Structure formats: structure tokens, C-alpha cells
């Protein structure tokens, strides 16, 4: 049985994702900092930014966990099928 190929993230893609996240986070934080509004409004926007960031990490973790769970279930199903096929004897009479 051939092992399924596990897709891997390249280092370049990982670095690009981290840099993109950092630039967007810093850019929005600087934008909030220099907005010509009161401290209360600036604080509210900063709190909203933190909430969006933490929610994004939580969502990404949930999606990753669901994908890993589906992979494990698929592998278990494949192992069961392989076992059934290995034990099957088409020439055996009951």
C-alpha cells in the first residue's frame, strides 16, 4: 500500500504568511494610533483589532483540527478496508 502524500507547507509560504500578517497588523495598529479621534474611540478600535486577531487564530486552529480529524478518520477507514481485503479469500467456500 502506498502512503498518502502529506501536503507540507514550504518555508517560503510560511514566511510570506507571517510577514503578511505582521504588516497588516502593524499597519492597522498605526492607522488606529494616528486616527484623529478621542482616546475612547481609539481604545475601542484597538480592542476590536485584538478581538479580530484572537478570533482569527481560534478559527484557524478549528479548521486545522477538523482537517486533521478528517485525515485520521480517512486513514482508519483505509486500514479497515485493507484488512478486509487482506483477509478475503475469493476461493474459500462456506
TrEMBL record:
Coiled coil spans: none
Keyword Membrane assigned: yes
Keywords: Membrane, Transmembrane, Transmembrane helix
Metal-binding among keywords: no
Domain of life: Bacteria
Membrane spanning stretches: 12-34, 40-60
InterPro entries: YiaA-like, YiaAB
Ranges for domain YiaAB two helix: 13-65
Protein name: YiaAB two helix domain-containing protein
Organism of derivation: Microbispora siamensis
Amino acid at each position: 500500500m502506498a502512503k498518502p502524500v502529506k501536503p507540507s507547507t514550504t518555508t517560503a509560504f510560511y514566511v510570506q504568511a507571517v510577514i503578511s500578517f505582521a504588516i497588516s497588523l502593524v499597519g492597522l495598529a498605526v492607522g488606529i494610533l494616528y486616527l484623529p479621534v478621542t482616546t475612547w474611540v481609539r481604545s475601542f478600535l484597538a480592542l476590536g483589532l485584538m478581538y479580530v486577531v484572537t478570533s482569527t487564530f481560534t478559527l484557524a486552529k478549528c479548521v486545522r483540527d477538523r482537517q486533521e480529524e478528517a485525515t485520521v478518520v480517512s486513514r482508519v477507514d483505509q486500514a479497515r478496508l485493507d484488512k478486509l481485503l487482506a483477509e478475503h479469500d475469493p476461493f474459500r467456500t462456506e
